[in-house]
Design brief:
The chain is mainly alpha-helical. The chain is built from 5 helices and 2 strands; from the N terminus they run H-H-H-E-H-E-H. The protein has a domain at 45-115: His-Me finger endonuclease fold (3-Layer(aba) Sandwich), CATH 3.40.1800.
């Protein structure tokens, strides 16, 4: 069986596919804030009031995994149908409560898979 003598030097030179360093995420978020104007809507008092009403309506329970979360910073008021920057869809909903883990993993995977 042949030996792979050239693989080791090449692996060390390869760039990582996933950049999950704290500075990168801050830069990415800042870039998205600058290029996607609709992200400012999440910082309004109107959105905070709407978010709170959805969280209380759903009793602080993730609608995917059914886990109740006491730390509301770990809950997301999620648009069931992606708004894609459409202001009417952004404010009209429908909305659901998701825990951060379900929103950042399962929901994002569904949106990428089904468009």
């Amino acid at each position: 069986m042949a030996r792979l003598k050239t693989l080791r030097p090449m692996v060390g030179k390869m760039q990582p596919l996933i950049r999950n360093q704290s500075g990168d995420e801050t830069q990415r978020s800042r870039f998205r804030d600058e290029t996607q104007a609709w992200r400012a809507w999440y910082k309004t008092a109107r959105w905070q009031k709407l978010r709170w009403s959805i969280l209380t309506r759903d009793l602080f329970t993730c609608q995917m995994c059914k886990r109740t979360e006491a730390d509301i910073s770990q809950l997301v008021c999620d648009h069931v149908e992606p708004h894609r920057g459409n202001e009417a869809k952004f404010w009209a909903g429908p909305f659901q409560t998701l825990c951060k883990a379900c929103h950042d993993q399962d929901k994002q995977r569904q949106e990428w898979r089904y468009g």
